[in-house]
Amino acid sequence: MKQEENISLGGLKTGEGGIIISKLDDLLNWSRLSSLWPVGFGLACCAIEFMSTASSAYDLDRFGVIPRNSPRQADVMIVSGTVTFKMADRVKRLYEQMADPKYVISMGSCANCGGPYWEHGYHVLKGVDRVIPVDVYVPGCPPRPEALIGGFLKLQEKIRTESIMRPKALEKLMKKDAV
């Protein structure tokens, strides 16, 4: 008797018969984490590091990360650089134009906490998380391309554990009703 061999692909199981058995959540999460499209939006020196991460030396394409020019085609926003109070409204508007599910990576010290400018400047926002929700923080001034790739990997881990049966919008409504 031949023993059946199963191969596991991130929750998907295949046998000899060519049939794939999985949960819908696993399939949808796999497809979303394998095709992250960030909006090409840079504010300061961290944007140069993002551009170098997309170059052939680091090759973000192997992770399925393809920068887009329009927020309506993107599902990830990378806030890279200093966010001023004047720019905060525009960042929020771009975030609202993105389709759900959408994710935010805050890249660099300036986007994370205002960097060296917030203490002596009246015009710098102390972290982009005061305007839009942030999913992954990438530290550094400016962070190396390897750190941004690590941020994408953390975001992929987060997406892998999400459930379509419990959307974020429904959770927010449930919290409002409980209060």
TrEMBL record:
<dbReference type="InterPro" id="IPR006138">
    <property type="entry name" value="NADH_UQ_OxRdtase_20Kd_su"/>
</dbReference>
<keyword id="KW-0874">Quinone</keyword>
<keyword id="KW-0479">Metal-binding</keyword>
<comment type="subunit">
    <text>NDH-1 is composed of 14 different subunits. Subunits NuoB, C, D, E, F, and G constitute the peripheral sector of the complex.</text>
</comment>
<keyword id="KW-0408">Iron</keyword>
<keyword id="KW-1003">Cell membrane</keyword>
<feature type="binding site">
    <location>
        <position position="141"/>
    </location>
    <ligand>
        <name>[4Fe-4S] cluster</name>
    </ligand>
</feature>
<comment type="similarity">
    <text>Belongs to the complex I 20 kDa subunit family.</text>
</comment>
<keyword id="KW-0411">Iron-sulfur</keyword>
<feature type="binding site">
    <location>
        <position position="46"/>
    </location>
    <ligand>
        <name>[4Fe-4S] cluster</name>
    </ligand>
</feature>
<dbReference type="GO" id="GO:0005886">
    <property type="term" value="C:plasma membrane"/>
</dbReference>
<protein>
    <recommendedName>
        <fullName>NADH-quinone oxidoreductase subunit B</fullName>
        <ecNumber>7.1.1.-</ecNumber>
    </recommendedName>
</protein>
<keyword id="KW-0004">4Fe-4S</keyword>
<feature type="binding site">
    <location>
        <position position="110"/>
    </location>
    <ligand>
        <name>[4Fe-4S] cluster</name>
    </ligand>
</feature>
<keyword id="KW-0813">Transport</keyword>
<dbReference type="GO" id="GO:0050136">
    <property type="term" value="F:NADH dehydrogenase (quinone) (non-electrogenic) activity"/>
</dbReference>
<feature type="binding site">
    <location>
        <position position="45"/>
    </location>
    <ligand>
        <name>[4Fe-4S] cluster</name>
    </ligand>
</feature>
<dbReference type="GO" id="GO:0015990">
    <property type="term" value="P:electron transport coupled proton transport"/>
</dbReference>
<keyword id="KW-1278">Translocase</keyword>
<dbReference type="GO" id="GO:0048038">
    <property type="term" value="F:quinone binding"/>
</dbReference>
<dbReference type="GO" id="GO:0008137">
    <property type="term" value="F:NADH dehydrogenase (ubiquinone) activity"/>
</dbReference>
<dbReference type="GO" id="GO:0051539">
    <property type="term" value="F:4 iron, 4 sulfur cluster binding"/>
</dbReference>
<keyword id="KW-0472">Membrane</keyword>
<dbReference type="GO" id="GO:0005506">
    <property type="term" value="F:iron ion binding"/>
</dbReference>
<dbReference type="GO" id="GO:0045271">
    <property type="term" value="C:respiratory chain complex I"/>
</dbReference>
<feature type="domain" description="NADH:ubiquinone oxidoreductase-like 20kDa subunit">
    <location>
        <begin position="45"/>
        <end position="155"/>
    </location>
</feature>
<comment type="function">
    <text>NDH-1 shuttles electrons from NADH, via FMN and iron-sulfur (Fe-S) centers, to quinones in the respiratory chain. The immediate electron acceptor for the enzyme in this species is believed to be a menaquinone. Couples the redox reaction to proton translocation (for every two electrons transferred, four hydrogen ions are translocated across the cytoplasmic membrane), and thus conserves the redox energy in a proton gradient.</text>
</comment>
<dbReference type="GO" id="GO:0009060">
    <property type="term" value="P:aerobic respiration"/>
</dbReference>
<keyword id="KW-0520">NAD</keyword>
<dbReference type="Pfam" id="PF01058">
    <property type="entry name" value="Oxidored_q6"/>
</dbReference>
<dbReference type="InterPro" id="IPR006137">
    <property type="entry name" value="NADH_UbQ_OxRdtase-like_20kDa"/>
</dbReference>
